[in-house]
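Need C-alpha cells for this chain, all 388 residues.
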Amino acid sequence: MRDIGYFDAASGSLTELAELTGRQLQASEVPLAAGVQRNVPLYDMAALRPMLEEDAARRALMAEWAWVLGQGPGVLVLKTAYADTAPIDRATAAYEAIIAREKAAGAGGADHFAAAGANDRIWNSLQKLCLHDPECFALYFGNPVLDAVCEAWLGPFYQMTAQVNLVRPGGTAQSAHRDYHLGFQTAEDAARFPAHVHQLSAVMTLQGAIAHCDMPLDSGPTMLLPFSQLVPGGYMAYRRPEVAAWFRAHAVQLPLEKGDALFFNPALYHAAGDNISCDINRMANLVQVSSAFGRAMEAVDRDAMCRALYPVMQRLQAEGRLDAQAIAAAIGAAAEGYAFPTNLDTDPPAGGLAPETQAALMARALAEGWDAAWFAQALAAHAAKRVP
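Here are the C-alpha cells for all 388 residues:
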C-alpha cells in the first residue's frame, strides 16, 4: 500500500501515540550509557570523554546517540557535559547582565509555548554572549561533548543558535509541543507540507538544554514523552486536547545538575515544567542546532526582486492577466516565504508562532492596493527588523 501523502488534523491518533510510547528502553540497547531512568539513557561524560579523542571510539558513541535520538526514546542526558562549570557560572553572570540591560531598555523575550509570567528569555543568546564576553564564549562553547552530540545527529558543518530561558519560582509550564521547523507552523500550514517533509523536519535540527543550575524536580525541568518522536502525524496531533492531556499524564522529568546537558529530537513531545520551588531560578541555555543542508545553493537578493516585481504584478492583476493562483505562484518564486532565520527581538511572532514573511507582506500589499513607493518602504522596514 502506498504511504499517505499528507497528514490532516486527525493524524497522529491517541491510539498510535499510546502504542509507540508504551515501549521500554532496555539497557542492552544503550551499552555505553551509565544507566536508564524513566526510558531516558544517561551518559557519564566524566567516564566517556576519552572516547571523543579517538576516531573509531568517537564514532561508536555518536552512532549510539544517533540511534537514541532517532529510533530510540528520542532523548538523552549527558551528565557532566561540562567537567569544569566555571564557564557556566561566568556565562550565567553574562546572561543576567544581558537580561538586566534588555529590561532597562524596555525589551523582554516572550515564550512561544508558555504564558507571559515569571520568566525571562534572551533571544540569540549565542551572539549576545560572544559580543558581551568573547573569552567566556570560547570557554563555554569550546566543548567537545557538545560538538560530538551535534555532529551525531546533524553531521559536520552544523550551525549553532541558542536562547536562554530563566524561569523563576511560580513560572508556569509550557504546553506540549514539537519544535522547529514544523513545530513552529500553524496546523493549517503544517498540513500543507507532504508527509515526507514531516519526516525530514525532525532530522534538520537538534534541541538541547544546558543546565546553568541544579534543577530538582520541583524547579520544573523539561517534561518529556520518550518515543513520541516516532508518531508520524505528530506535528498535527500535539495541538489536540486529548493528546495534550495524555502528555501531561505520561510525561517524565529528570533532575539535572549544573553542567549537565539534555538533548532531544525536535519531534519529541516536550514542554518546560512548572517551577513550584521556593527559591530556584531555573536557567537553561536552550541550544537549537541546524543542519548545514538547510540552505539554498545561490544567494538571491529577494528584496530587489520584490521591488522590481511589485508594480508589474499590480498592473497584470488589474488587467486580469494573473488570477489568484498565478499571483501566489509568482510571489512564491520571488519572495522569501519562510519567517526564519530572523531577529526575534525586533521581529517577534505576529499573531502566532512566526513573524510575517516577505511573501505574506507582498500578498497583503497587493490585496490592499498599496502603491509601489509604500510597498518599497514597508519592504525596507521588514528587512531592517530581521537584521541581528
